[in-house]
Amino acid sequence: MFREEIKVLDCTIRDGGLINNYQFSDEFVNAVYAACCDSGVDIIEVGKKLCESDEYTRVKYGRWNFCDEDDVKRVIESHECETRPLVAVMYDVGRVDVSTLGSRDQSPFDMIRTACYVADIDKGIDLAKRTKDLGFLTTINIMAPSAAIETDLVEALEQVNASDEVDYLYLVDSFGAFYSEQITSYLDLYKKHAPDKELGFHGHNNQQLAFSNTQQCIIDGVNLLDATVNGIGRGAGNCNLELLLNFLKNPKFDVRPIYKVIQEQFIPLRKEIEWGFNDIYGISGHLNQHPRAAMKQRANEKDQDNCLDFYVECTRLEDGDVA
Amino acid sequence: MFREEIKVLDCTIRDGGLINNYQFSDEFVNAVYAACCDSGVDIIEVGKKLCESDEYTRVKYGRWNFCDEDDVKRVIESHECETRPLVAVMYDVGRVDVSTLGSRDQSPFDMIRTACYVADIDKGIDLAKRTKDLGFLTTINIMAPSAAIETDLVEALEQVNASDEVDYLYLVDSFGAFYSEQITSYLDLYKKHAPDKELGFHGHNNQQLAFSNTQQCIIDGVNLLDATVNGIGRGAGNCNLELLLNFLKNPKFDVRPIYKVIQEQFIPLRKEIEWGFNDIYGISGHLNQHPRAAMKQRANEKDQDNCLDFYVECTRLEDGDVA
After folding, report:
1. CB-based contact (8 Å) between B283 and chain A?
2. B259-274: string of b/e by CB count within 10 Å (b at 16+)?
3. What are A127-158's pLDDT values in tens digits?
4. pLDDT at A252
């Protein structure tokens, strides 16, 4: 597949950090940055930009939950590169402070991605507007649309469409619940109600479909694609960047730096933290549930592989008397 | 997805046995059989039916490489079941002896699946005819069509189409090389040149696409689908049966017995043998190569995760001076 407009966004550090409270070593972050530079990835997201507090400290929650400008500049300066990727950071509605963000020309960031649920779309759009005013590229990543009531989602999409300050609108498969035909039908909805927006996609791999759903998005016209090195990410992880670069035929991409960083950094990391498909996440995705129950099951060493028990528990709750 | 015609074939023992020389315990085989019975799977393939010889012994190559009728009957009798699945066994061209096969009414088998490369299609069709004469359902599984010259493949398809004795023709993604759009284009070729045949699909998971490609086949009208419990199978394995049953909406299927056998049998087995996606198999699939080099790499503990080295080695050979 070759389409010149397609851009790849690496969110390895940001989504991977959800597993280990952003406790990546400098060496690791620099290596991921260098790999993205050398492979021709268009955008790299280096973490979240949340507010620090007495409770929510850098020591406990990790440097890349806060993305201080100086830290990010140090990463960028760690690797020389002819055309470096744009640098993105994620905003979570309700946990950020725009007043601490300088303007783009003095910032290491190029893009601010705002993540919000449908219910918070007004807050999300407000953040997008304020970050756009500072000169940044902006995205709205509506989380968990698979669990949203359609009329609410449609209203949110129409609001996003009416906001000139939003550059990209993301379809996000937060629960890893979508099959390819649902990707197409949700994209139809997004295109119908937000026809003026460029679309992005962020998948999760609960049912081994993050990569194939990303392909479906390409077929359906999406031009901004999220992926992570070796699929690292919360729970079942994300679309594997190396598989995606193999699939994309644009000669600007070179997959070898990605395999290099996997071989040197990710294989050792796999001995410390877990990510990727297993049946617990598969059940969670199939049932269109937030992955928190699945992550809890995986965290309990004794029961972590008890997929029958997990299935029975999840479906028993679903059959509960809430009619 | 619900379509009444769709049938699911479990090839857990047959494809899984390629990893461990068919050294499954009786308890394991019986448990897989029981799970298939109780989950409503239509067909179960219990192994290969090859010729034993002084070199090729049951002790070394495992009981389920030979599938003696008595062994198979014992499995069937191990679990009572209202509607039991049909029982299939695989024939490899050149390694079987039809004269030892009784007629279907005296056999535990219902279906003989013949696997062959395009070059051996005449031998494959001959076996299908001879097994059909004995009353069995028959399939031809053309291996590695992704590496066949199209005119040869077309000729093979036309021969299969002209053979009334072949009940099902399989598209086989032997190398785990197909993307969904290629699934569609190969199926178009199969339908054009073998329009009278019911189609089946057997995928491999090198690029995390076995399940999604199976879905693509369903969309494209294929009605016989191979899968294995927990995706067990050679190299990166196959389409996960549990994911597929979740996807299929036919109420005759019940996924719980599959999760039960995973929890009780497959989780312990994972500590002994490896299967499933990793980047070595991903590279092999992307490059449309036979998995033998990838399996060799995985078997070498020191280098098994060196995906950059493997990529460079594989692509260096491809760039070799063979113009």
Report:
1. yes
2. bbbbbebbbebeeeee
3. 999 999 999 999 999 999 999 999 999 999 99
4. 95
Minimal Cα–Cα distance from B257 to chain A, Å?
A: 8
Residue A2 included in any domain: no
The domain boundary, picked from B231, B246, B270, lies at B270
A59 and A19 in a common domain: yes
Chain B residues whose CB is inside 8 A of the A260 CB are 308
Q: Are A237 and A205 in contact (CB under 8 A)?
A: yes
Q: What is the total count of domains within chain B?
A: 2
| CATH code, domain with B134 | 3.20.20.70
Interface of B with A in 149-208 (CB under 8 A): 179-181, 205, 207-208
Helix (H) or strand (E) holding B88: strand B86-92
Buried residues in B216-236 as b, exposed as e (16+ CB within 10 A): bbbebebbbbbbbbbbbbbbb
User: Which of B181, B219, B256 faces A311 most closely, judged by CB atoms?
Assistant: B256
The verdict on residue A1 lying in a domain is no
Residue B189: phi, psi to the nearest 5? -65, -45
pLDDT along chain B (323 residues), means of 10: 91 97 97 98 97 92 96 97 95 91 96 98 98 98 97 98 98 98 98 98 98 98 98 96 96 97 98 96 97 95 96 78 64
DSSP collapsed to 3 states, chain A: CCCCCCEEEECHHHHHHHHHCCCCCHHHHHHHHHHHHHHCCCEEEEEECCCCCCCCCHHHHCHHHCCCHHHHHHHHHCCCCCCCCEEEEEEECCCCCHHHCCCHHHCCCCEEEEEEEHHHHHHHHHHHHHHHHCCCEEEEEEECHHHCCHHHHHHHHHHHHCCCCCCEEEEECCCCCCCHHHHHHHHHHHHHHCCCCEEEEECCCCCCCHHHHHHHHHHCCCCEEEEEHHHCCCCCCCCEHHHHHHHCCCCCCCCHHHHHHHHHHHHHHHCCCCCCCCHHHHHHHHCCCCCHHHHHHHHCCCCCCCHHHHHHHHHHHHCCCCC
What residues make up the domain containing B77? 7-270
Same domain, A74 and A163: yes
The shortest C-alpha distance from B141 to chain A (Å) reads 25
Let me know the angle formed at the C-alpha of A280 by A277 and A286, rounded to the nearest 5 degrees: 85
Residues A310 and B31: their CA atoms lie apart, in Å, by: 20
> Using one digit for the tens of pLDDT, what is the confidence trace for A79-95?
999 899 999 999 999 88
Distance of CA A5 to the CA centre of its chain: 20
Residues A291 and A264 in one domain: no
Answer yes or no: do B292 and B150 share one domain: no
Chain B closest-CA separation from residue A218 CA (Å): 11
Residues B288 and B151 reside in one and the same domain: no
Widest distance between CA atoms in chain B: 61
**Do B289 and A306 contact (CB within 8 A), yes or no?**
no
Give tens-digit pLDDT for A188-205. Answer: 999 999 999 999 999 999
Is B2 inside any structural domain?
A: no
Whether residue A216 lies within 8 A of chain B, CB to CB, comes out as: yes
Question: For testing the chain B interface, which of A220, A241, A243, A289 should be mutated: the one with the most B CBs within 10 Å?
Answer: A243
Residues A305 and A239 in one domain: no
